[in-house]
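ok trying again, last paste got cut off:
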Amino acid sequence: MRRPTNQHMTEKVIVIGAGMAGIMAARTLHDAGLDVTVLEARERIGGRTHTDHSLGGSVDLGAAWIHGIDGNPLTPLAQKLGVEYGYTDFLNRSVTAVQAYDEDGTPLDQAEYALGQQHALAGWYLAAGSILYAAPTSVKSLQDWLDFGLPKPEGLSFSAEKGYLYQSLISTEYVCAADAHEIDWQLNEQQVGLTGGDYLLHGGGYSVISDHLAEGLDIRTGHAVTQVTVTEDGVTVTTSSPTDVAKKEEIACSRVVVSVPLGVLKSGAITFEPPLPDAKCGAIERIGFGNYEKLAMRFDKFYWPREAQRFNYMSTGDLSLFHAWLNIGYYTGEPILVSYHAGKRARHLNQLSDGDLIERTVAVMQRMFGGDIPAPLNYARTRWQHDPFSQGSYSFDQIGQQSGDRNALAQPVENRLFFAGEATHPHFHSTVHGAYETGVRAAREILQQL
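nice, full thing came through this time. structure:
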């Protein structure tokens, strides 16, 4: 490593946010010899990676998977730190990874359901890649593609029809944390996925990785940034305490890395003086920011099939709910089950009290798995939508968004403000490795100025 110069040592950099992007920006700058302080509004680090240990095992309530282990910087970290992870067959190619149920609780045929999923995947590949499938220019959203006529074989069985519905519509809504009419399918196709499969972190979780990367860094929790003022001489960052808004502090520095979630930028919780450039403000407004919520529950024993990784409940209606379940017990042997929702479903359930949500969740479990299932021994629930320091879950490509918006969001301002976070990555957005890479990129932009 190149020896730090005296100029490096006189640089004072503030990083706003101690999520993966902020931690990696600070880690990179610190290791290059700069004076770096991370300001985090929460009383913990990790941002939208948050591992819960209250259920007797580690459950990630935010990001939970390494999406694509090949060439992913998180893979060697997990291996080095002894974080256990296991393969999740999201596309159900094994046929046995998912057990699906009809709305009345009838188990669907696993092989036929998986066949329907594969037909939907083949239809998407044909729609996206075949020059013979030319859609009108007005067809942009996921819902448009479905309405236009996604290629679909005739004569599918009842179970295959349900698998087709899940993979063609519901699964994508969950991946994007948004609703079909909001998702720009043409932009979404530009997202790049790493190979090697998806692996759930279940032994220690993401907190092990973020804690390791944060070792030795100056991280000040409980410091919510409210204003960033750029002058000719540098930058002044104003903070307040989440528990005492009257308690303010001003910190002077030479440069700032802004790594807060896109939802915070959208909310205007941080004031920038002078205001951010129009191109960046437009990108903040146009890029979508979705909702994705989880309910993790621990029971006294397994009331569901232990051999399935996931469960799909194919409810119908204007607001179909409880489609997606993750069996933590498949990986750990612990009787922990996670129900998760996205888009309008997540926003709807966020209006329920804990008691109402648990009651409705257990009622669906009884319908699927049968028997008299008691309330969970313990549970952990997310409300990322209402968290003032995230105001949502992660970004998605939204109707009205422009192809260069993510790059515009990432652009530095006056060589004083630098931007990181999953929403700034043009290809790996909505992933932890995307956030990781943008933190390193923002740090290198600063180093290049020196």
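cool. The two ends are 15 Å apart (CA to CA). The chain has two domains: 6-43+205-289+406-449, 65-204+291-386.
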